[in-house]
Amino acid sequence: MSQPWVPFDDRGLAYGDGVFETVLLHEGRPLLWRQHVERLQAGCQRLGIEPPTEDELSATWQATPSVAWEVLKIIVTRGSGGRGYALPHTAVPRLISQRVAFQPDPTAWASGVSVRICQLRLARQPCLAGIKHLNRLENVLARQEWTSPTIREGLLSDSHGWIIEATSMNLFWEQDGCIMTPVLDQCGVAGTLRAALIDAQQVTPGQLALDDIASVDRLWLANSVQGVWPVTDLWTPQGTCLRRWESADQDPLQRVAHPLLGYPATP
């Protein structure tokens, strides 16, 4: 099933007809592997694609590591064939993977990051909500909204004004001592670190309106590769600073999230 290349008629290339995972490896071992496999399988089921076997997926990371930290990207497409959008009579899914060296960013953990609000609004599509499908054009368009190296991420809300995620990270906030993350039943990617924190009852799904984001006690961005980035300041698309937050020595979200990734709980 695994192939190192994609032919012209691959449906993932033509239509975004597939799913992918981005997995952190430490000393050759995958972190949050169960959550990645479950999300990939759920995405394949949602799209009607036969998922790879667990042995096939495990083979993508079992080579001898060249460095301590790596990122493994796994792509599963429906394969080739079909006429237009119609599915092929017998689909043969295609599995592709690649490992690259990675260096964590402890400065972002300790000092926090600046983020901005994006003008683009995510479309609601419950059939695709939560899964990491290959069509990421909304994220690509949103990431084009800024070029300043001082802005590390952009926040995305949906067409109803609810904050959903960042362009490549999940969103978390603290209000009245409770750490929350957006409900993702209409759009957005349900991250694997997010899933692990919800399973551990460290984070509660909820809703946060774009108009209320500047009033939260703390704000974070996080994913299963970068870890947890505290947000120190929030900017509008017009370049106005909406809010600044003081970084804390003891970060409650890093304390519970970073050990799941092999990162220090306190940078």
Automatic annotation (TrEMBL):
Catalysed transformations (reactions): 4-amino-4-deoxychorismate = 4-aminobenzoate + pyruvate + H(+)
Cofactors demanded by this protein: pyridoxal 5'-phosphate
Keywords for the protein's UniProt record, in alphabetical order: Folate biosynthesis, Lyase, Pyridoxal phosphate
GO cellular component: cytosol
Pfam families named in the record: Aminotran_4 (PF01063)
Pathway: Cofactor biosynthesis; tetrahydrofolate biosynthesis; 4-aminobenzoate from chorismate: step 2/2
Lineage: superkingdom: Bacteria
GO biological process entries: 4-aminobenzoate biosynthetic process; folic acid biosynthetic process
One Gene Ontology MF term: 4-amino-4-deoxychorismate lyase activity
Coiled coil: none
EC number(s) reported in the record: 4.1.3.38
Family: Belongs to the class-IV pyridoxal-phosphate-dependent aminotransferase family.
The protein's assembly and partners: Homodimer.
The name this protein goes by in its record: Aminodeoxychorismate lyase
Gene source species: Vreelandella arcis
